[in-house]
């Protein structure tokens, strides 16, 4: 019997379906010589500081730095009471360990996500029990039936994945050491009053600094006027065209007088076509998406999207088997996937009007091992979705269209450049005109990209034309734009190397300095979200700016290395090297320990400054109703509406970020909770279906018959 551990229940269900395992038991599936069980992401977490030493229960400056001699893991804490283990996690962990110890189980297979976080999740659960049975690793890029069956044929010994685990542990331990120590010491030093801590993180602060630097650039920008001279010419056939005056490769002049003198010489002048270039140019489809490019594309194109939301929707599509693994940094596909991708292309393009133009080819732009890092680029799978929510449709279409575009004809356009010289000896420069005509739409058909043609009349070299008008215009230099999530993600991906806002060479960016970045594709969206949540940045429309707190933190916090992109990039590069087996994790952790000890000392000797003042707020303990589980009072807290008897173990709560309600685009309100507790149901208006349709329904929140959890029920 083979035991497979998946990272989530939905993935376990995909594996069970692929293996035709139908029997579901409490916490696992069983059948056909397989047992498939699951985690809920991390079932285990690192000890809190107070678990190592009771004195760490209270934050006192003299207790820091605090670095444990060795790191220990415990069952994930209950979010409402961190001193208690989460009941669901504890129960599932017991189930997994019971299944591992069954005599008929002769092999354990970790099927958690193929990345350092997934490796850590699986190994922390499996090796907590010190198994004597062989452990294997299922390395998959998609959860389709074919993908699962193929993966089971090509498993690796889990021992081979040790460097990936080392990188996962190094990242987790380093973030614990830096986060616990510097967050605590900074809060004690710079915050007045109790409340949300002054959050300090290895990835958080350099990301904040990127936004701060751009804000400063805009603030210090001094606008300058510049001038352009445009002339209108008429051909023999009475067609007109415009040209901009260029002299010594300059078309933006700082002195108005220079152009005024030239404009005065233009009256009643004829001109000659001195140069004409007509060039056919090719436009290749942009490369396949990695996560950063997908997040940038969606957040730039659609209102109301964040990088975090794109990742969540992409993850859902991945777990539903519609797209491949989304947390990838690659923009190409492994060359071994050629046959599989030919079938995928056939499936996703079957009903397209332009399917006759699609040609599958083994192009180096698409299939290139040198551009693949762990996971290939994101593509659709051969499993076609029957119904998707509006959000899922947006992300799926982006991935599907980008994939199809790789196999469409190259777009072609004709670019014309005309240089017109006015026949006056004192005018040294020429008037330059540029035209562009789309000849072949090619891949642009896939996304219906409309190209604007700029037509120029058909003139011959040395042809004489008349100058009919001229215009001297004033322009002002503009400051750089605030960062958007798209531009911020790019800077994080490349650590600011060789990146400009108008850089469109995604292929160049996708391959810069492998491993040298701020965070990973999987964590960057969460970093941006956290910066907003802790109040360091804010967003207006799609633009990101620092808050006053964020500015003060950058200007005051003395550990400047943490704001330095180069320093943070080197740390991330070292984690990458650990993952590849080039650097031992002990070296990295020694560096982190030294850095933390020095940083704490530095903060302690700095001048006391208040960066953040937290006002104590009184919370009303209004009783909303009686707890259906134990009969005690239900009250509102910052995170939900829960039983006041939680200290004695009652787990009843309706979370303010409840996933069921969130999917219906609703949040629980006091009125809703009161109705559910006192009248057993609440009539809720304006719920939103997966297809985006609004509807009304009665909602109930009732205890499950098989366990102690409560679930939502809907009646119309």
List keywords for this structure.
about 725 residues; alpha+beta; seven-stranded mixed sheet; six-stranded antiparallel β-barrel; 20 helices; about 20% strand
Termini separation (Å)? 46 Å
Q: Which radius of gyration do the C-alpha atoms yield?
A: 31 Å
Strand ordering within the main sheet: 2-3-4-1-9-10-11
Beta-strand proportion: 15-25%
* Overall geometry: globular
Give the number of helices: 20
Q: Give the mean pLDDT.
A: 91
Structural category: alpha+beta
Fraction in helix = 25-40%
The parts where pLDDT drops under 50 for at least 5 residues are 498-514
Give the tally of β-strands.
28
Largest sheet: 7 strands, mixed
Structural summary, described in words:
With 716 residues, the chain is α+β, with helices and mostly antiparallel strands. 34% of the residues lie in helices and 22% in strands. Strands 2-3-4-1-9-10-11 form a seven-stranded mixed β-sheet. Strands 13-14-17-16-15-18 form a six-stranded antiparallel barrel. The protein has a four-stranded antiparallel β-sheet with strand order 22-23-24-25. Helix 6 packs parallel to helix 18 (585-605), helix 9 runs antiparallel to helix 13 (485-494) and helix 10 packs across helix 15. The chain starts with a strand and ends with a strand. The model is unreliable at 498-514 (pLDDT under 50).
């Amino acid at each position: 019997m083979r035991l497979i551990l998946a990272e989530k229940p939905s993935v376990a269900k995909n594996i069970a379906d692929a293996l035709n395992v139908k029997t579901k038991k409490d916490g696992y599936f069983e059948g056909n010589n397989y047992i498939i069980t699951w985690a809920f992401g991390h079932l285990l977490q690192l000890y809190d500081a107070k678990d190592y030493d009771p004195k760490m229960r209270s934050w006192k400056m003299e207790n820091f730095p605090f670095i444990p001699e060795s790191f220990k893991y415990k069952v994930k804490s209950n979010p409402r009471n961190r001193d208690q283990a989460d009941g669901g996690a504890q129960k599932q962990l017991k189930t997994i360990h019971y299944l591992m110890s069954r005599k008929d189980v002769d092999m354990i297979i970790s099927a958690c996500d193929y990345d350092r976080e997934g490796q850590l999740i699986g190994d922390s659960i499996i090796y907590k029990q010190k198994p004597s049975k062989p452990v294997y690793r299922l390395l998959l890029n998609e959860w389709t039936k074919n993908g699962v069956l193929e993966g089971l044929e090509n498993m690796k010994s889990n021992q081979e994945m040790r460097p990936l685990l080392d990188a996962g542990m190094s990242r987790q331990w380093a973030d614990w050491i830096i986060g616990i120590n510097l967050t605590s010491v900074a809060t004690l030093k710079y915050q007045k009053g109790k409340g949300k801590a002054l959050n300090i993180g290895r990835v958080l602060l350099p990301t904040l600094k990127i936004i701060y630097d751009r804000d400063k650039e805009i603030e210090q920008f001094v606008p300058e006027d510049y001038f352009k001279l445009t002339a209108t010419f008429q051909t023999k056939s009475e067609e007109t065209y415009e040209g901009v005056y260029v002299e010594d490769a300059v078309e933006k002049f700082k002195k108005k007088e220079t152009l005024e003198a030239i404009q005065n010489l233009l009256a009643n002048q004829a001109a000659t076509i001195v140069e004409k270039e007509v060039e056919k140019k090719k436009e290749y489809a942009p490369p396949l998406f990695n996560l950063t490019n997908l997040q940038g594309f969606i957040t730039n194109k659609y209102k109301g999207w964040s990088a975090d939301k794109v990742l969540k929707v992409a993850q859902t599509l991945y777990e539903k088997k519609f797209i491949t693994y989304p947390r990838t940094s690659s923009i190409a596909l492994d060359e071994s996937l050629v046959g599989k991708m030919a079938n995928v292309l056939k499936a996703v393009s079957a009903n397209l009007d332009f399917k006759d133009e699609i040609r599958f080819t083994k192009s180096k732009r698409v299939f290139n091992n040198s551009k693949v890092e762990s996971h290939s680029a994101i593509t659709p799978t051969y499993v076609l979705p029957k119904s998707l929510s509006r959000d899922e449709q947006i992300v799926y279409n982006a991935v599907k269209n980008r994939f199809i575009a790789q196999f469409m004809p190259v777009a072609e356009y004709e670019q014309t450049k005309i240089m017109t010289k006015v026949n006056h000896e004192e005018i040294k420069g020429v008037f330059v005109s540029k035209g562009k005509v789309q000849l072949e739409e090619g891949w642009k058909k896939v996304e219906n990209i409309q190209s604007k043609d700029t037509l120029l009349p058909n003139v011959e070299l040395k042809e004489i034309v008349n100058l009919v008008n001229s215009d001297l215009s004033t322009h002002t230099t503009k400051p750089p734009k605030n960062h958007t999530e798209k531009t911020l993600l790019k800077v994080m991906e490349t650590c600011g190397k060789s990146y400009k806002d108008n850089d469109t060479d995604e292929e160049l960016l996708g391959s810069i300095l492998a491993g040298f970045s701020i965070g990973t594709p999987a964590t960057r969206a969460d970093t941006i979200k956290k910066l907003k949540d802790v109040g360091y940045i804010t967003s207006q429309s799609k633009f990101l700016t620092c808050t006053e707190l964020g500015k003060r933190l950058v200007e005051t916090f003395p550990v400047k290395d943490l704001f330095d992109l180069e320093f943070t990039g080197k740390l991330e590069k070292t984690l990458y090297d650990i993952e590849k087996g080039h650097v031992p994790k002990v070296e990295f952790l020694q560096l982190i320990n030294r850095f933390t000890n020095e940083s704490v000392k530095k903060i302690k000797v700095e001048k006391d400054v208040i960066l953040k003042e937290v006002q104590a707020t009184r919370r009303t303990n209004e009783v909303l109703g009686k707890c259906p589980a134990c009969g005690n009072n239900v009250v509102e807290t910052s995170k939900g509406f829960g039983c006041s008897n939680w200290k004695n173990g009652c787990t009843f709560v309706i979370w303010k970020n409840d996933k069921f309600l969130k999917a219906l685009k609703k949040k629980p309100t006091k009125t809703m909770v009161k109705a559910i507790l006192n009248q057993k149901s609440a009539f809720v208006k304006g719920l939103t279906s997966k297809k985006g349709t609004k509807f009304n329904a009665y909602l109930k929140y009732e205890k499950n018959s098989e366990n102690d959890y409560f679930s939502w029920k809907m009646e119309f």
